Amino acid sequence: MEELLFSYLDTIGEFSEEEKSSMMELIQLRTFNKGQIVLKAGNKTEDSFLVIKGCLRSYYIVDGEEKTTEFFEEEDIITPVCIGDNSPSRYNIACLEDTVLLVSNPTLEAAGFSRFPQFETLCRVLSERQLGKKQQEFDSFKISNPEERYKKLLMDRPQLVQRVPQYQIASYLGITPQSLSRLRTRIITQK
After folding, report:
1. Given CA atoms 73, 135, 39, 35 in this order, what sign does their dihedral have?
2. What is the pLDDT of residue 172?
3. Which of 39, 76, 93, 186 could form a disulfide with 72 if both were Cys (CB 3.0 to 4.6 A apart)?
4. Beta bridge partners of 39
């Protein structure tokens, strides 16, 4: 797992072997099994996560039905909204596959910032990238119809369609599984 983490970090900045070794003292990696809940609605957390390996989804329960709002894959950052106001989470985050997450929280970050000044820059760069990416996804989602959303998903994240059950993709797109099936058939016949 360390190799996966450091190969990802190397895309953002340069770290010496000594720095990498010292960082491992501050880093918490947690493993979860497929189906396991990382954050349950109603619980509070200070933890945010970087997906090292695996696939997760966030979802709300609305009138007894699961409504998927996001999928997370390798290199995605998960920052639960409840961190900002210390409120209970309104949604769940569950593992769709066996998963390894790098865990961060204010205590770990403060220790990292004091030992490695470039760690603060790393966190800032990651946060800026994540914020920009999420804003673009949100804007695109709001101005497109379900067919356009699905085509964009196929173009931007084709592997996700193979990793995630179709009913969860339909929920994410805001349509029924039957509508997704018709949509997929229509797209295939247009090729």
Report:
1. negative
2. 95
3. 76
4. 93
Task: Return the half-sphere exposure (C-beta side, CA atoms, 13 A cut-off) of residue 68.
Answer: 22
Three-class SS state of 183? helix
Q: Provide Rg for the chain, Cα atoms.
A: 18
Give the CA angle between residues 98, 127, 139 to the nearest 5°: 90
pLDDT at residue 4 above 80? no
12 and 121 in contact (C-beta within 8 Å)? no
Cα separation, 15 vs 136, in Å, equals 30
Give the whole-angstrom CA distance, residue 120 versus residue 114.
Answer: 9
Q: Is the pLDDT of residue 91 over 70?
A: yes
34 - beta bridge partners?
none
pTM, two decimals, is 0.85
Categorize the per-residue pLDDT at 1 as very low, low, confident or very high, splitting at 50, 70 and 90.
low
Does the CA dihedral 164-125-49-146 come out positive or negative? negative
**Which residues have C-beta within 8 Å of that of residue 82, sequence separation ≥ 6?**
44, 45, 88, 89, 90
φ, ψ of residue 146 in degrees (nearest 5): -55, -40
Query: Residue range 69-73: average pLDDT?
Result: 95
